[in-house]
Write a structure and sequence with these properties.
Length: 468
């Protein structure tokens, strides 16, 4: 018996228990989540630094990158949402000890991520110009944005491959390797940003195009590294496309969880696009909104990292029939998420002017007048957001992503955008920001209701078949 197969077989020839089924929950959750939280903090940092470098070109460049965010967010929604479906399905299958099926799920997941990239390459080529024309009448902003978005989409294969191969590592408990890939990609982006934007070390000054090239270069390097790690270290999954044919049944099961997650995250793109249209009449408000999104990523990314560690643990123990471990993982994750969000709340309430100043060396009076009350108002939603984000991921891990989708639709499309539009009619931009905490209250109520429902129908029955 080969010793490097200990994760697949024990000495008796039976599958050995994965650490997600036996390690103490607190230790397991931290070991799975901390690497992802660190790597996502690095990602959030490079998103902020990326915008800081772009802002040194001029405010129009920063506004263009901010207006490109809905399409970039949609790319992330499709890649990550699909990967959430792969992650939950794969982890549950591993919990059931069906290793051959897990291999097939992984290969089908890679295939659909590649197909998704092709779709966005066409969007970058044909939709960039009309997309920017719909959001702004300023020609310079449009031209900056078209160049930036076209590069990010047509060369965006890295983000799709990075995400899917990182999720394969996470699904099998190898969060550290996933952290390394994300960290390396972020560092590549950070190093290349000033070199390509401003033309250091003999490179031509590419401006906004340089920021886009730095972004896709970091993603591609991270993707290559994630592929290498899977092939070399991931013994729970054997990847091979020899004789591959797409399985409609397996792809359908991936999208059963993945499509609601995609829709849930894509709704954020629609919301951002709608808010940009509402804010167009309020001067620098679009720029302030873009700055807020960069800053809030530094707070939300650790929570998303926590979720990435939590989802395979819950899915695995759901498949293994361990109700106690599912419940304990959920409770611990909620506690950590709430604490993280409260730190973010304090930072935005205490230092809004300093945070805005990161993106504008002179911190113009218009940005401060609009931005300070904006940050202080929007961040009130953080009081509830941590709980809602974790609960939504619990739904996905248990195969009920539709609940997460319904909450997201209600919060962002049925409440946030209509309330923001109604408040905009007053002509007071400060009122618009109150739409965010109002929408989060709705999310809190719906998330709690669905959690009670899923506890009654699913969580309380976990393990009953094994006992019988």
């Amino acid at each position: 018996m080969r010793t490097d197969m200990k994760n697949m077989k024990n000495e008796g020839g039976a599958p050995a228990e994965n650490k997600m089924g036996v390690m103490p929950i607190e230790k397991l959750l931290l070991s799975m989540s901390l690497p992802m939280m660190i790597s996502m903090l690095v990602q959030a940092l490079y998103n902020i630094v990326d915008s800081i470098f772009v802002s040194r070109i001029n405010e129009y460049a920063l506004r263009a990158v901010s207006l490109a965010f809905p399409i970039q967010s949609l790319m992330i929604a499709v890649s990550v949402g699909t990967a959430v479906g792969i992650n939950a399905f794969l982890s549950r299958t591993l919990g059931e000890k069906d290793f051959e099926k897990a291999n097939t799920i992984a290969v089908n997941g890679i295939f659909i991520e590649l197909a998704s990239y092709v779709v966005f390459a066409f969007i970058g080529i044909f939709a960039s110009r009309p997309f920017f024309a719909s959001q702004t009448a300023i020609a310079q902003v449009r031209e900056y944005g078209i160049v930036y978005l076209t590069i990010c989409c047509t060369a965006g294969i890295g983000i799709f491959m990075q995400v899917v191969f990182e999720r394969l590592l996470q699904s099998t408990g190898r969060a550290f390797h996933a952290m390394v890939t994300q960290g390396v990609g972020a560092v590549i982006n950070l190093v290349l940003d000033p070199i390509l934007i401003f033309g250091y070390f003999g490179m031509p000054a590419m401006g906004v195009a340089g920021a886009a090239v730095a972004t896709v270069a970091g993603q591609i390097v991270a993707a290559v590294l994630a592929i290498v790690f899977n092939l070399k270290f991931n013994k729970d999954i054997r990847l091979s496309f020899r004789g591959f044919r797409p399985s409609g049944e397996l792809i359908g099961n991936i999208y059963k969880v993945g499509v609601p997650s995609i829709i849930m995250q894509a709704i954020g793109s629609v919301m951002t696009y709608g808010m940009n249209l509402i804010l167009e009449a309020f001067g620098a408000a679009q720029t302030v909104f873009g700055i807020y999104f960069k800053l809030q990523s530094f707070i939300f990314m650790p929570v998303f990292g926590l979720n990435n560690g939590m989802v395979p643990i819950i899915a695995y123990n759901f498949g293994a029939g361990s109700r106690e471990r599912v419940v304990k993982t959920m409770k611990s994750s909620i506690g950590y998420a709430v604490c993280i969000m409260l730190v973010g709340l304090a930072a935005m309430e205490l230092f809004p002017a300093q945070l805005i100043g990161l993106f504008d060396e002179e911190a113009t009076s218009e940005l401060l007048v609009i931005g300070v009350p904006a940050l202080r108002t929007i961040c009130l939603s953080f009081c509830f957001a941590g709980y809602c984000i974790v609960v939504g991921s619990v739904f996905q891990a248990l195969g009920n992503g539709v609940y997460s989708m319904l909450v997201s639709i209600a919060r962002q499309l049925c409440v946030l955008l209509p309330v923001a539009w109604l408040f905009s009619l007053s002509g007071d931009v400060n009122l618009i920001w109150w739409a965010f905490p109002i929408a989060e209250l709705v999310s809190l109520g719906m998330s709690t209701y669905f959690l009670m429902r899923i506890h009654r129908n699913i969580i309380s029955h976990i393990g009953e078949k094994a006992l019988s």
